[in-house]
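Subject: sequence -> structure tokens, single chain

Hey, anyone have a minute? Need the predicted structure for the following. Not urgent.
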Amino acid sequence: MKLLLIVSGSVAAFKTLAFVRLARTAGMDVRAILTDGGARFVTRESLAALTGNPVHQDLWAAEESIGHIKLARWADAVVVAPASANMLARMAHGLTTDLASTVLLATRAPVLAAPAMNPAMWEHPATQHNIALLRARGVAFAGPVDGPMAEPESGPGRFVEPEALLAALQGARPLAGRHALVTSGPTHEPIDPVRYIANRSSGKQGHAIAAALAALGARVTLVSGPVTVPDPAGVAVHRVESAREMLAACEAALPADIAVCAAAVADWRPENAGVQKLKKQPGAAPPAIAMALNPDILATLAAHAQRPHLVVGFAAETEHVIRHAQEKLTRKGCDWVVANDVSGDVMGGAENTVHIVTRSGVEDWPRMAKNDVAARLAARIAEALA
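Reply:
Had a minute. Here:
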């Protein structure tokens, strides 16, 4: 494949260097256009060294050598990464202010854009209008995903990881046409109207997985327990409280091609939740709370008449992580189990160390950001379903 990469102005531009390396390893011939904004974050020399080709930046210099029309016609595909809000606006309105925007107007090759910007800019109606215009013209998008930004804040607008961008390019959104069901967060099991049993799950990992699957083209249904993290962009979110509500929402979302059960579902619930607040009585012992077993969402989906083709569970363990995950894989009847040790700062934290347990063995992944775990898992799912 002859790939034309356009790098526009965003802090995330440095990630395009890793993307170029992956694309070259995949056998692609890569040429790059660097905008003036992009040149504030990466150098022509870096891109030239990694692409093995001269980097184009100036419109008039290009006219003297290859020419913007020739460059536009040379490409089998064009990737704009990162695609800044300014670049998306120029693409949407056909403005030709530099070499990059001129080539984009002239090319007839498929275009894949990977946006990267502050969440406020991404969510602005002007940007969303531009996105809608570009989608209507056939421009494909990889991301953005939800996560920490260069600024001290988090939200939708983060550049997709290079592996996910490559997967989107190689497979023309390899999960397009697939429906993915993802569960995330904790469940709250009521004791009375004001108290409940819960756990420390933040939903960060499950929400990141939903966003990563959407970035690869999947139609994603996210069933989320009570969390404070924002909804992933481009994902249908169903909010629930209890395990029973979560199971009902999951079954209502079927059929699905993929199910990723990342939620930390409470194993038990109070058998009879109080209608009124339980009151402390002077001198009396604490009330005895009889517990009932909650439904097993993972096992139910794995044995369902509309069973997804690939069912992935999570095992949050504090000891014997691999052994317990292997036992869970057999007991639940799912295809994979993503195991992690939650005895430290994983629940609520930004990083995770996971092991992918299947019937054929165990893959040990290094510690990485939860967004990176999600991108790698989504790419692994796309590969399995290819």
